[in-house]
Amino acid sequence: MTLFDGKVAIVTGGGSGIGEAACHLYAREGAKVVVSDLNEKRGNEVAQAIQKMKGDAIFVRADVSKPDDCQAMVDATLEKYGRLDIAFNNAGIGGETNLTADYSIAGWQKVIAVNLSSVFYCMKYEIPAMLKTGGGAIVNMASILGQVGFENSPAYVAAKHGVVGLTKNAALEYSKQGIQINSVGPGFIRTPLISGLEQDEQVRNHLISLHPIGRLGESEEVAELVIWLSSEKASFVMGAYYPIDGGYLAR
Ligand code: NAI
Closest residue (by CA) to atom 33 of ligand 1? Predict the structure, then answer.
């Protein structure tokens, strides 16, 4: 018996990094997985990899910064599988790095659209779909930078703080109707998102030094928490923010 037998899960940004790892874990636990991403090639590869392991998955292209794409993603899920039980709203970008006064307006708007507005758009369409079958679970991707600042990343920090607040609000509204809504806050995780930073040894060592554990995190470590928060094992966890950060926030 697996955790998600008969259940259907959407993962945005499922074509890479933490989202990809979560797709595989949902499939391992018996869920039918809707791998969604902007990147068609990567998203299709992840869905096919799951199918090869005898799992059930489809790829649905969506740009989560566009409300219509988010609606179409949920509609495609209902059309294919007839229900929606779990959503991991994970897609995101690092975006421009600059001091606040030097940050471009376009850069700000892009990061807020992809990292924050997307979570609202996704929930707006996922929640009614879940209510049709009596509830579900939503995990929203925040960051340690949903709790503390990081110089040169004003838009990212604002967006991730926004995700934490939006998650609390939605949980207040829907927990009585059977939807458990929470957010996760990873420290720096070794994915393509930070590969640019990692290439410079000095920067890499600095990032590592911010984590008391003495290393960066792995996608699978984050995915394990996401899976737990998506399951009935977390049935009393509502509107919470869960750091998973090698001790970053403990300082
Ligand atoms: P990644 O770059 O490996 O994967 C992100 C995925 O999102 C990619 O497949 C990309 O195509 C997709 N994506 C980007 N913009 C999109 C859009 N507009 N619509 C749909 N899909 C889009 O990155 P990673 O690290 O796996 O990041 C996943 C999430 O985790 C992001 O929200 C990120 O902010 C967050 N995060 C990552 C940390 C890290 O250190 N890697 C730390 C804390 C949070």
Answer: 92
The per-residue pLDDT for 196 is 87
Q: Give yes or no: 81 in active site.
A: no
217 lines ligand 1 (CB under 6 A): no
Distances (CA, A) of 184 to 97, 176, 221, 251: 23, 21, 12, 18
Using most ligand atoms within 8 A of CB, pick from 88, 93, 216 the residue to mutate for ligand 1.
93
**Would you give the distance in Å from CA 68 to the centre of its chain?**
19
Per-residue pLDDT of 25-83, as tens digits, reads: 999 999 999 999 999 999 999 999 999 999 999 999 999 999 999 999 999 999 999 99
DSSP 101-162: GG--HHHHHHHHIIIIIHHHHHHHHHHHHHHTTT-EEEEEE--GGGTS--TT-HHHHHHHHH
Instruction: Tell how far the Cα of 176 is from the centroid of ligand 1, in angstroms.
Output: 30
Token look-up 């995190």 returns 217
Residue 249: pLDDT band (50, 70, 90) is very high
In the structure encoding, which two tokens stand for residue 143, read together?
Answer: 């960051």
User: Tens digits of per-residue pLDDT, 107-126?
Assistant: 999 999 999 999 999 999 99
Other CB atoms closer than 10 Å to residue 41's CB: what's the count?
Answer: 9
Confirm or reject: Cβ of 243 under 6 Å from ligand 1. Answer: no
